[in-house]
Amino acid sequence: MPERRAGDLIRSAGTGTVFTLIGQPEGERDMTLADLAREAVCTAILAGAPAAAPAGPVAAAVTLRAALPELTELTPNERALLGDWLDRVSGR
Fold first, then answer.
1. d(CA 24, CA 17)
2. What's the half-sphere exposure (Cβ side, CA atoms, 13 Å) at 36?
3. What is the mean pLDDT of residues 83-88?
4. Do the beta carbons of residue 61 and residue 86 sit within 8 Å?
5. What residues have CB less than 8 Å from 7, skipping those under 6 apart?
6. In this structure, are residues 60 and 82 in contact, taking their beta carbons and an 8 Å threshold?
7. Nearest to 24 by CA among 12, 33, 37
């Protein structure tokens, strides 16, 4: 699962769980709901089908984006611009 999708899943499950619990009367809240939601999210992220490795320019963009902070030969503005381009290529 791509990082962004995993983050969105974690955020949406957490937000939904919190709002659901807040909406229930205090004495009737099922506090195990949070544990169940966490387990469901972890299972979806960790045990899901492995994502196919991107090939070609997308793989190159992801690899270069990961190394971007180490490219000290570029100015901060150049790194930011290159990062924007690489994000666009990789679909982030």
1. 11
2. 8
3. 94
4. yes
5. none
6. no
7. 33
Helix (H, G, I), strand (E, B), or coil: what is residue 31? coil
pLDDT reading at 50 higher than 70: no
Encode pLDDT of 4-31 as tens digits.
Answer: 889 999 999 999 999 999 999 999 999 8
Separation CA 20–CA 53 (nearest Å)? 36
Count, residues in the chain = 92
Looking up tokens 């962004």 gives: 4
User: Distance (Å, rounded) from C-alpha 92 to C-alpha 85?
Assistant: 10
77, 82, 86, 89 alpha-carbon torsion, rounded to 10°: 120
Task: Judge whether residue 53 has pLDDT over 70.
Answer: no
**HSE value, Cβ hemisphere, 13 Å, CA-based, for 67:** 8
